[in-house]
Amino acid sequence: MQPPVEIRHWSDRTRVVAWRWYFPERALPWASTNGKRFHEWMSNLKSGSDVALTLFANVIARLCEDGLLRPDAIAATPSSQKYEIQTKHSVAALSSMVAQMLTVGDLNDLVRRTRTVPRAVARPGMRDEEVQFSSMQVSGPMPPNVGTILLLDDVLTSGSTARAAVRRIREMSATVQIDVLALGKTNATGSTQFPDVPAFPDPSIQKIKTLQKRMPDLFRST
To answer: N or C terminus of the chain with fewer C-beta within 10 Å?
Structure first.
């Protein structure tokens, strides 16, 4: 599997990994077949597809097993809806599945929404981040023996949601290492080179066993 398309550091103790480019609808006409299929698989994940959930859980587990990420616990960026309205969204479900696969701490609801926020805030940048930050809270104290948290996000665009979640976690611990992993990072230029490996199969696949047959190199052998 080819490495992530981008790795950056927001601070000494916060690293951001973007696994693949995510092309918005307007850029798809220029995207490669693999880039288009990744977009569709991400749509399936957001729609609650168990097949897509299994695919991306194995992607994340592989990145961890290959040594790029070494989490003690896995958390999720919150959805835009208030926690009591949507307690288990797709990224939280993904967080729980990966934590179970890797036998690490499951902190899928560590950061919660105290109120619903618009999916797209009118003005990007710091103001957007402050809106996000003010609508979040942490659900409890930092569990013991957690040196590194893997914070999962589906698509990173401005980064305001992930930055706000990192700030809330920092209120619990100033020393914990936080690795933000975004499955996709928005790229408005569909002609940007998209990795060929893994080659994503037809997104209409309805059975996990079929997916395993199409992508045998991705799935864990155990």
So the answer is: C
In a domain, 215, yes or no: no
Number of domains in the chain: 1
Q: At residue 119, does pLDDT exceed 70? A: no
For residue 139, being part of any structural domain is answered with yes
Closest CA to 76 of 88, 63, 67, 62: 88
Are 91 and 67 in contact by the 8 Å Cβ rule? The answer is: no
Asked, for residue 115, whether it belongs to a domain, the answer is yes
Q: pLDDT tens digit string along 89-109?
A: 899 999 999 999 999 999 999
CA–CA dist 173, 71 (Å, integer): 15
Place 142 in a pLDDT band, splitting at 50, 70 and 90: confident
116 touches 85 (CB < 8 A): yes
CB 117 within 8 Å of CB 127: no
Q: Which residues of 57-88 are buried (b: 16+ CB within 10 A; e: fewer)?
A: bbbbbbbbeeebbebbbbbbbbbbebbeeeee
Would the pLDDT of 124 be above 60? no
Which residue, among 151, 147, 148, 145, has the nearest Cα to 109 in the 3D structure? 151
pLDDT tens digit sequence for 72-82 = 999 999 998 88
Distances 161 to 103, 112, 176, 195 between C-alpha atoms, Å: 27, 12, 19, 26
pLDDT tier at 201, thresholds 50, 70, 90: very high
Domain that holds residue 61: 6-191
